[in-house]
Design a protein that fits this description.
It comes from Dyella lipolytica. With 342 residues, this protein is α+β, with helices and mostly antiparallel strands. Helices cover 38% and strands 22% of the residues. Helix 1 links the parallel strand 7 and strand 8. The protein is globular, with a radius of gyration of 20 Å. It starts with 12 loop residues before the first strand and ends with a helix.
């Protein structure tokens, strides 16, 4: 279905949207279909509040090519991914207009902070609005997943579960909200230990792991139990249970990747020291746990009362460049031009 597109006086169709990155507590690592970005296991995440991607999409009648800028720069590889994503929307809307896309992040890009998740969730949402496509959040989640797997989760806010699905066409591999952000308002301290792009991207890392890691089958076989444990903990607001299963999933994912050939080492020395600091704080009775995605940045999830002590402890770790503080946030949404420029 279609509704009225967002057209200006020149006939260009445009909209702007914002989405936040999400951090997986029960990890997604591995694909059963790379072309459709279908995961081999399900996952559970939290959507962050203070980190964001803001994206403007403008479809221009008569324009043949897409023009893409990320943080004011053009990147050929990223532009190809954006065009592939826009092609899915253009097919739905039965248009062939080229688009101007301007996107920016307020956090490091391609460095283990889920910039692809927020970026493609914002792109799908803005493109949907610009073209006047009447798509539900679930339908947007499926399209976002096609563009970047974990972007399926950033369509939603708060606590989110992404099903791996069973269908060959992937239509049942969709994210859904588990719990609203304000229903259990945890906080996250993000220890930035590097701003460089990671040497091995997630897609290549997953492919290598699936082909060479001896732990791949165990990873798949134990995931449903981990998901069930985390789901119960979230719905019961059981912090201790969520802490134990989240750290377990994180370390299991990295052990899986480290056992690939050649092994994938996404951590640096500061990452490991931050893990020790978080565990020491928890032994002292502070409600906090860590998780780390495919990158060197550590995320310490805690109760709001603990955030200042957690931040101070992480800032004290040699090699930590900065510590970001964020709550849990909303899903992808439309924004005004003034917000886009802020």
């Amino acid at each position: 279905m279609k509704r009225e597109p967002h057209a200006d006086a020149l006939g260009e169709l445009h909209a702007a949207s914002q989405a936040q990155p999400n951090i997986a507590l029960i990890k997604y690592w591995g694909k059963r279909d790379a072309a459709l970005n279908l995961p081999v296991v399900g996952s559970i995440s939290i959507t962050l509040e203070s980190l964001w991607t803001r994206t403007e999409v403008r479809f221009v009648p008569g324009q043949k090519q897409d023009r893409v800028s990320l943080n004011g720069r053009s990147d050929e590889a990223e532009s190809k991914r954006v065009t592939a994503c826009l092609d899915l929307l253009r097919q739905r809307a039965a248009v062939d207009y080229g688009a101007d896309v301007a996107s920016r992040n307020n956090f490091p890009t391609a460095a283990g902070l889920a910039s692809s998740a927020s970026g493609f969730a914002a792109l799908v949402h803005a493109g949907t609005q610009a073209l006047g496509l009447d798509l539900s959040e679930a339908e947007q989640s499926v399209l976002a997943r096609r563009c970047s797997g974990s972007a399926a989760r950033s369509i939603f806010g708060g606590y989110v579960e992404w099903a791996h699905g069973q269908r060959v066409d992937g239509t049942d591999s969709v994210a859904r909200p588990l719990l609203a952000a304000d229903a259990w308002p945890l906080r996250v301290a993000v220890a930035i230990t590097s701003t460089a792009a990671k040497q091995v991207g997630s897609s290549e890392g997953m492919r290598r792991t699936a082909q060479t890691s001896p732990f791949q089958s165990a990873w798949i076989d134990t995931q449903e139990a981990d998901l069930a444990t985390a789901r119960r903990a979230i719905l019961a607001r059981d912090f201790e249970a969520l802490a134990l299963i989240s750290e377990h999933s994180c370390l299991k994912m990295h052990a899986l990747a480290m056992a690939a050939q050649p092994g994938l080492l996404y951590w640096n020395g500061a990452t490991i020291e931050c893990m020790h600091r978080v565990r020491a704080l928890r032994q002292q009775g502070l409600p906090v746990f860590f998780t780390v995605d495919a990158g060197p940045q550590l995320k310490a999830v805690c109760e709001p009362s603990a955030i200042e002590r957690v931040k101070a402890a992480l800032k004290d770790v040699p090699g930590v460049l900065d510590v970001l503080d964020t709550g849990l946030g909303a899903g992808a949404r439309s924004i005004s031009a003034s917000t886009l420029e802020a």
